[in-house]
Every structure is written in C-alpha cells, then in structure tokens.
Amino acid sequence: MIPITKGKQESAIKIVFYGPEGISKTTIASQCPDPVFIDTEGSTKQLDVARYPKPEYWKMILDELEDALEERNCKTIVIDTADWAEQLCIQEVCSMHSVKGIEDIGYGKGYVYVAEKFAELLRACDKLVEAGINVVFTAHAMMRKFEQPDELGAYDRWEMKLSKKVAPLLKEWADMVLFCNYKTDVITDQNTKSKKAVGGRRVMYASHHPCWDAKNRYGLPDQMAMEFSQIERLF
Fold first, then answer.
1. Residue-wise pLDDT tens digits, 104-117
2. For residues 161 and 142, what is the distance between their CA atoms, to the nearest angstrom?
3. In 3D, which of 137, 111, 141, 114 has the Cα closest to residue 125?
4. At what angle do helices 109-130 and 58-71 cross, to 10 degrees?
5. Residue 62 and residue 83: Cα distance in Å, rounded?
6. Which is deepest, 9, 111, 134, 163, by most CB within 10 Å?
7. DSSP labels for the chain?
8. Which long-range CB contacts under 8 A does 54-61 form with residues at least 24 apart?
9. What is the Cα–Cα distance from 109 to 111, expressed in whole angstroms?
10. Residues 11-56: pLDDT tens digits?
11. Are 51 and 73 in contact (CB under 8 A)?
C-alpha cells in the first residue's frame, strides 16, 4: 500500500524577483536568510554579501550549485541574474553544436536546446530546495508587444528578459514570481483639471495582470511595498 500524507508541508522557497534595471532586485535578494550569490553579471560588487566566483561558462554554474548542496554553506542561493545565466547556456549550446550563433542551428531548434539545457539548472535547484535551501533568481524585465488571439489590437506588457521557451519554464518552476517596478501616482489639479505624475515608489506585484506576469502560492496581497519585511514570514 502506498502511504498518503495530509496537511501542509514545510519547504524551502523558490522565488523569482524581476523588474527593470536599478529597481534593487539584488538588494532585496540579499536580505533573504544567509544568502550566497552566484553573480553572473557582477552586480553584487557594491554589496557586502557572500558569493561564489563569477561563472565564466555554463558548467561553472552547475558546479557551484553542486558545491552548495554538498557543503550546506548557506540557507539561500541567489542566481543573479537568470538572463545572464541564459546567455551562458546559449554559449554552451552553440559550442555543443559547433555554431557561432543560436540561430545557426536551425529555425527554432536552437532555443529548444537552450530550454532543455536550462531545465538542468532548475533540476539542480530542486535538489537544493529538497535539502532545505531556498533558491532565488533575479531577472531583468523588458517590454514586449502582446496580442490577444481573440481580440483586436495589441498592448505592451512587462516580461522577463528571457527567451520565449525559457521564461515559461522559470515561471512554472517558481513558487513565487514577484514583479518589481516603480509605481507612479497620477493626480488631477482640481482648478485646472490637468494631470501630473507624482511619487515613484518601488512596489512588488504578486498576482498576474494583463501588463505583467506574477504569481504566488502564499496568499500575498496583489501589491506590496518593495521591502523584504513583506515576505519575511514566508521563510
């Protein structure tokens, strides 16, 4: 007989913070419990954090994840950023197929291979989560034109700066995808009826919206101040 379990299960957390450049994704990731960074782009230079050597090639990222699993030297691994990690993944796929660019492999095929290779990274991260180590990805955001298949017209939306096959993998893998951005309030002058933008506070969005991807499995509010205290209880 196969045993059946009931109730909530405590687990390490899988998080993605993404947003435009300079929004402090790395800073909020550094506030997670006892973090060690895999800094693929050198963005932690101004932060007092623990870090592995900057990966120069794809296997180096996997080796550093394996070392974290064996040594248990942290409570959180931060891969900063996912899009720069994907570039190393693309270089690895190009090297494997002896081509200069991913498009040279054949129409669409190159990015399929990249997604398969990137999935190896996520499986390595799953081993860390099973061992009780939180895994955090940061990623840059970019605006893309999105067309509804059943409606006329199109609109711009924020997405992770990843290829179209890797981005869904990372979103599905994560327990929580938080979109970080500046929120500008628009006020109307009661005398002139003119509108002007004020503020520019940093916020995190935890729920899906037509203009951005976000999700969470913890009942977080749709919008929060971009402060670690908003999610600290989850750890």
1. 887 778 999 999 99
2. 6
3. 137
4. 10
5. 16
6. 134
7. ------S------EEEEEESTTS-HHHHHHTSSSEEEEESSSTTTTS--EEPPPPSSHHHHHHHHHHHHHH---SEEEEE-HHHHHHHHHHHHHHHTT-SSGGGG-TTHHHHHHHHHHHHHHHHHHHHHHTT-EEEEEEEEEEEEEE-TTSSSEEEEEEESS-TTHHHHHHHH-SEEEEEEEEEEEEE-TTT--EEEEEEEEEEE-S-BTTB--EESS---SEEES-GGGTGGG-
8. 55/85, 55/88, 57/88, 57/91, 57/92, 58/88, 58/89, 58/91, 58/92, 58/117, 59/92, 60/88, 61/85, 61/88, 61/121
9. 6
10. 899 999 999 998 999 999 999 999 999 999 888 888 999 999 999 9
11. no
Q: Extract the tokens encoding 218.
A: 């913890």
**Pair 80, 66: CB distance under 8 Å:** no
- Tokens encoding 12: 């390490």
Amino acid at residue number 215 = K
Total count of residues recorded for the chain = 235
